[in-house]
Amino acid sequence: TLAEILVAVAIIGIGLVGLAVVVPISSYGVQEGNQLSTATFLAEQRIEQVRNASWSATPDADCVGVSPGGATPTGVATSTKCTRVADGSTGLAACVSGGACTTYPDEAAVTGFTRYSRTTRVIDCNVGAGCAGVTNAAMRTVRVTVSYTPLTSSGVSPVAKTVTVDWLVSQR
């Protein structure tokens, strides 16, 4: 009958309104997860670059470098014992052993991911602090921080979010 149809339409309408409220919230959640995953990927990408860098006692080579400031690093990692060719895919500049070289520069906008910035700090474990209590001249902590401005349901958030990954590396 007509009354039953009207009741069914009202119930379906209430259900559709409920779904319409949830869609923006769920799409924000998907977007937030995507941005967080991208930031984590970019941090892990830099960690892999550092892990693959040469750092050995014999021959004396150090393309990992150390950031100034000890346990609370304040600047980019540098080295005078690094020899490498420039790599356009990673953005790393050429280094010649004996000259000052920034091993992993800060990036205000990561190539291919302009909404993300990345900093890399390297802490010498010979100091002890910042290395999970390890004091060893053949170990360093690499701290990669990726910052991004998340998208929200109302546009771009005024508050940046960060992802930080710490990794111990050892001399080979």
Could you please describe the fold and organization of this structure?
A hairpin with a 4-residue loop joins strand 1 (55-56) and strand 2. The protein is 30% helix and 26% strand. By secondary structure, it is of the alpha+beta class. It has a 3-stranded antiparallel sheet, covered by helices on one side. It has a two-stranded antiparallel sheet with strand order 1-2.
Mean pLDDT: 88
Q: Can you count the helices? A: 1
Overall form: elongated
Going by helix content, strand content and strand pairing, the class is: alpha+beta
Helix and strand sequence: HEEEEEEEEE
Low-confidence sequence ranges = none
Tell me about the largest β-sheet. 3 strands, antiparallel
- Strand arrangement, major sheet: 5-6-9
Distance between the termini: 82 Å
Percent of sequence in beta strands: 25-35%
Helix content: 25-40%
DSSP, total strands: 9
> How large is the radius of gyration?
24 Å
SSE blueprint:
Elements: H1 2-52, E1 55-56, E2 61-62, E3 77-79, E4 101-104, E5 116-124, E6 139-148, E7 151-152, E8 155-156, E9 161-170
Antiparallel strand pairs: 1-2, 3-4, 5-6, 6-9, 7-8
Brief write-up:
The protein is of the alpha+beta class and 172 residues long. It has one helix at residues 2-52, and strands at 55-56, 61-62, 77-79, 101-104, 116-124, 139-148, 151-152, 155-156, 161-170.
Features:
about 170 residues, 3-stranded antiparallel β-sheet, two-stranded antiparallel ribbon, 1 helix, about 30% helix
